[in-house]
Amino acid sequence: MSTSQTKTKAKRRHSPARQQRTEQISRNSDSVRERLRTGATTVVVDTAGSEIELDDRTFAKAKTNEWTIRIIGTSLVRIHLDTPLPETAHIVATDAARLQITGRVRLYAYTNTVVDAFDECIVIARNHAGINACDTAQVNATDSTFVNAYDSAVVYAEGDAVVHASGNTHLILSDNARATTQRGVTVHGPSRKNVCVRS
User: Fold this and answer.
1) Quick one: which of 14, 104, 136, 176 is 20 to 30 A from 6 by CA?
2) What is the per-residue DSSP string for 114-176?
């Protein structure tokens, strides 16, 4: 091969443009229902300050029992369930979302979420979430959560959680959790000394 031969230019391979994967956002209950029906395992909900309602019909035709609804931003969501969801289905609220839950909802609340929980709902709260629990709702609170408990609510508080309780509520305090209560509130747990009783 002579050095005078011209070199052929190597062909450049043109790869298809990479598309950034963006999460599809659901803005209303119809979108949530359709995404679950088609097999989505994660549905991100951001109502951008508008209020939507989710109920048993929203989740009834989910293709699988293993999914997560993640409510973000400044969403306003009302959820009512007559039948509890499967243990493998999760509803998570984060950021500055505001929720009202009734019936038999199990909800995970993080960051600065505010939740009004009624009936037999269960809320697992972390970070700086604020929970108002009424009726026989149950709250498992940790980190720096703040809980207002009324009626016959039950609160398991640990970490640096703060609880204000009245009515016939039951509190179980651990770690640095502390409570301000009215007479009639039952307090148990290793940190039950961290209680101030209002007269």
Assistant:
1) 14
2) EEEE-TT-EEEE-TT-EEEE-TT-EEEE-TT-EEEE-TT-EEEE-TT-EEEE-TT-EEEE-TT
pTM of this structure: 0.87
How many C-beta neighbours within 10 Å does residue 42 have? 13
Task: Specify which residues 123 forms β-bridges with.
Answer: 107, 139
Return the number of other C-beta atoms located less than 10 Å from residue 67's C-beta. 21
Rounded CA-CA distance 8/6 in Å is 6
Token couple for 85: 């969801």
| Tens-place pLDDT, residues 40-66 | 999 999 999 999 999 999 999 999 999
Q: How many CB atoms lie within 10 A of CB 96?
A: 14
